[in-house]
Amino acid sequence: MNADKTKTMVFGDKQISSKICINGIELENVEKFAYLGSNMTYYLDCSKEIAVRIAKAIAKATANLKALDKIWKSKAITLETKLSILKSCVFSTMLYGCETWTVTKRCESRILSFDRKCYRKILRIRWTQKVTNEELYRKIQLAETLLQKVIQSYFYWCKH
Predict the structure, then answer these.
(1) CB neighbours of 16 closer than 8 A, spacing ≥ 6?
(2) Which of 38, 77, 137, 157 has the most crowded Cβ, counting Cβ within 10 A?
(3) Residue 115 phi, psi dihedral angles, 5° rounding
(4) DSSP characters for 36-72?
(5) From the CB of residue 27, how many other CB atoms can be counted at a distance below 10 Å?
């Protein structure tokens, strides 16, 4: 047994009531660890993890949106195809590990804001233009937001 890789963590509490020993080796209780590429903390605050995911997705979105600028400007490519590219190239980065997040109101707001920013970029809607979120969603015929996908992933993960 590799004692360095065998540790415990109690969600909601920094300390555990009793120590766990395997083959005479006491397992260390930690405050945070990486799981599926996500940083888990005992106090279940995922705001930093979500901020990191959004930052990575924004970096990838910026690079991809810039690299794919000809596609976004092309009138020969349908909106449906553009949205598929956005989902596969950008949203997949954003959603990686989301089933482990504890989503707060602040996190919800950030996720939805990122979601709308990407759609506005695809539709070439500038921040100075007065387009409501409802109009935006109607233009792209949005079936579900990123936040809804996060929630679905979480429930799918819990169910299995």
Answers:
(1) 8, 10, 29
(2) 38
(3) -55, -55
(4) TTEEEETT---HHHHHHHHHHHHHHHHHHHHHTHHHH
(5) 15
The domains of the chain are located at 3-30, 44-159
Q: What is the pLDDT of residues 58-110, one digit of tens each?
A: 677 667 667 777 887 888 999 999 999 888 888 887 777 777 777 778 888 88
In sign, the C-alpha dihedral spanning 143, 148, 153, 159 is: negative
Phi, psi of 55 (to 5 degrees): -60, -45
DSSP, collapsed to helix, strand or coil, labels residue 125 as coil
Using alpha carbons only, how large is the chain's radius of gyration in Å? 20
Could you tell me whether strands 7-8 and 28-29 are parallel, antiparallel, or unpaired per DSSP bridges? parallel
Token match 């092309």: residue? Answer: 74
Q: Tokens 């997949």 appear where?
A: 92
Give this prediction's pTM: 0.63
* Assigned token pair, 83: 């949205």
Token pair 């009531």 is found at 17
| DSSP tag of 35 | E
Helix (H, G, I), strand (E, B) or coil at 115: helix
